Amino acid sequence: MKNDRYTGILMHPVSFPSPYAIGDIGDAAYHFIDVMNENKVSLWQVLPLGPTGYGDSPYASRSTFAGNELLIDLKRLYLDGYLELEDIMSEPVVTERVDYGRAKEIKMPLLRKAACVFLKTEKNSSRYKEFCSEHSYWLEDYALYQSLCDRYNDSRWFSIWPEDLRNRKKSALDKAKAELKEEMDIWCVLQYFFFSQWKSLKEYANEKGVRIIGDIPIFVAPDSADAWTNTKLLKIDESGEQEASSGVPPDAFSSTGQLWGNPLYRWEEHEKENFSWWIKRVSAALRMCDIVRIDHFRGFEACWEVPKGEETAINGKWVKSPGEKLLKALAEALGDDLPIIAEDLGVITPEVEALRDSFGLPGMKILQFAFSVNDSGELESGNAYLPHNIERNSVAYTGTHDNNTTCGWYKEQSDAVKDAVRRYFECPDDQVPWQMIRHLLMSNAKYAVIPMQDILMLDENARMNVPSTCGSSNWSWKMPQWGYYAEGWSRLHYYNKLYGRVVKK
C-alpha cells in the first residue's frame, strides 16, 4: 500500500545562513534539501517568493509573478561566467538576522553587473528568448514598473508618479519604455537568473523526494506591478485611488479588526474573463512549486470590505465572492485534483467549509490553537485543533510564520493552559515542544508541517512575524549554521519512521 502521510518543514529561503545578510537559493538551500532527504522529510514549505517592498513582507510583493532578486545565488552567477572571483570573495557580512537593506547594498550592484555581462554575451540566446516569451504576459510590465520605481524612488504609482503613467497612457508608456530600455533589460535578466536557479533547485528537490509547498496571498499589494497593470480587475478608480480596502473584522485579538489596505477585486470583471488572471497566477505558482497554499482562503467565499477613508476595519462588511465559479475555472484549466491547501483560519463559516470540502481541499490545523480551557481550567476536548480530533484531509502545524515559536508560545501561556497542556501530553514543561511535534506526526493529518524554529527548540526571539506590526524583527529570522546538524533532525527522522511518514519515491 502506497504511503500518503507526509512530513514537512516550514523554512523561507531568506532564513538560510549566508555571507550576504540574506539567505538565497544557492548551496545552503541544496544542503537543506539533502538534510531533509536524509531524515525522511518529504515537504518543504516556503513563503511567497516575490520581490518584497516596504516592510519586506513576502505577503506584500511588488509582483505576484516575479521572483525576489535578492534570493539569487551570486556563486552560481560566478560559475556561469557572469561575475569575477573577487566579486564573491569579499569579506562576509555577518548579521544575526536578515538585513534587507544591507543585502541590497551588497547584492544589487553585483546582480546588475552580472546582468550587464549577460546582456553583452547572451542576450540573443535561444534560452533567454524562450524565457521572455514564456513570461511575456507579466515580464515587461514588471521590468518597467521596477525601473519607474527606481526613477521616482517610490513604488506608490497611485500618488507619486505622473498622472499619465498612473493611468498607463500609451504615449507615456512608450516614452518610458524607450528611455528606460537598458534598465528594463537588466530587470528582465535578473528574473531569468532567478527562475533558472529556482528551476534547478526544484528539480534537485524533486529528485531527492522533496516536494515544495508554495504560497499565494489572496490579495495583491497596492504598490505593486499587479495593481498598476490590472486596475480594471480591482476596486481602484480612474485616479488610482482604492475604493475600498481589505481586512478582517474585530475579534478576540483586536477590538478594531485589521485593516490590511490591499485593493479588493472586481469579481464581476474576473468572471467576464473566465478568471483568466487567476488561472495564470495559480499556474505560475504551480510551475514553481508542487503544491500551493492559498492565504486567506475564506476570501474566496466572502471578503471583509472596508470603505475608503476608514482608519480601522470596524465599519467593514462581508461581500460575497464567486469562489465556486473561480475554483471550477481553475479545475477545468489545471485538472480536477487541485494541489491547493486552503488557509482556513480565522472567521470560518459553514459556507467557507463547504467551499473547501466541495473541491476536496485540505484545511489547516494549528496545535497552538488547540488548548482552550473552560472556566474550571479543564481542557475543552472537542477543540478541532487537538491532535486526536484532526481530520485526515488536513495540513497540521505546531504553528505558522504568524505564530510564536512553540517554545515561546508555551512560555507565554497562563498557568491553567500550561496545566492542561502538561496533562494532555503527560510531560513536564521542558518536553512540551517535542511532545507537540510527536503528536502532530502521530495525528491522522495527511500533512504535518513544522516550522524550522521548532525543530531547533528556539524561543520567541526566533519568531518570523508578528501580525499587524511592522518592524525589523519581522521576516528576518536567520537559521544558525548549526541548524543543519541539530539533534532535532534525528529525532524527527525517528518519528517519521515510527508514525509511517516515510515516503518512498
Fold blueprint:
Elements: E1 6-10, H1 27-38, E2 43-45, H2 74-79, H3 85-88, H4 100-121, H5 126-134, H6 139-152, H7 163-166, H8 170-179, H9 181-207, E3 211-217, H10 225-229, E4 244-248, E5 258-263, H11 267-272, H12 276-288, E6 291-295, E7 302-307, E8 317-320, H13 323-334, E9 340-342, H14 350-358, E10 363-366, E11 394-397, H15 406-411, H16 415-425, H17 432-442, E12 447-451, H18 452-455, H19 487-498
Parallel strand pairs: 1-2, 1-12, 2-3, 3-6, 6-9, 10-11, 11-12
Antiparallel strand pairs: 4-5, 4-7, 7-8
Helix pairs in contact: 4-9, 6-9, 12-13
What would you note in describing this structure?
- InterPro entries: GH, Glyco_hydro_77.
- The structure is a single chain.
- The chain has 505 residues and is an alpha/beta fold.
- It has helices at residues 27-38, 74-79, 85-88, 100-121, 126-134, 139-152, 163-166, 170-179, 181-207, 225-229, 267-272, 276-288, 323-334, 350-358, 406-411, 415-425, 432-442, 452-455, 487-498; strands at 6-10, 43-45, 211-217, 244-248, 258-263, 291-295, 302-307, 317-320, 340-342, 363-366, 394-397, 447-451.
- The strands form 2 sheets. An 8-stranded parallel β-sheet has the order 9-6-3-2-1-12-11-10.
- Helix 4 packs across helix 9 (181-207).
- It is globular, with a radius of gyration of 23 Å.
- The two termini are 13 Å apart.
